[in-house]
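Lecture 7, part 2: worked example. A protein chain together with adenosine monophosphate.
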Amino acid sequence: MPKNMLKDTHSPYDPDNIFAKILREEIPCRKIYEDDYALCFHDVTPQAPVHALVIPKGAYRSFSDFTANASDEKICGFFRAVKQSVLLLNLEKEGYRLLANHGEHAGQEVPHFHVHICGGGSLGRLISENKTHK
Ligand code: AMP
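Predicted complex, written out as structure tokens:
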């Protein structure tokens, strides 16, 4: 971890979260891609024509936890897996959106770091019109 990076002080990782159970194959998922670093599967409640999730193979609560505590190899491997998933989903040409929620204000529901991949049609603005802050 770089010396000047702030430490993440949130609660400990919950090994019983739903994505940990998917990684342990205790519950099923619709798999798209898997390698040593990550697993990609379809979101069970899609919010776009194509909506997938990529999760790292390790106990990380959020983006902040992952980037502070995972090795450079694991971070690089994870983001390469995101790119590979984008290719397999055929989203490269027409475009896609990556999104990661961290914590309460972002509405993070599952406390295992994940990147949403959305695409397959026009996605509109990132934040709805009535939620902009000037
Ligand atoms: P977030 O709000 O960023 O934590 O997003 C959690 C996402 O996980 C939501 O989009 C859910 O629809 C999705 N999700 C929850 N449980 C499952 C599951 N068992 N399989 C696939 N996606 C899930």
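The beta strands are 31-34, 38-42, 50-56, 96-99, 115-119. Residues 18, 29, 43-45, 53, 101, 107-110 surround adenosine monophosphate (CB under 6 Å). Keep this in mind for problem set question 3.
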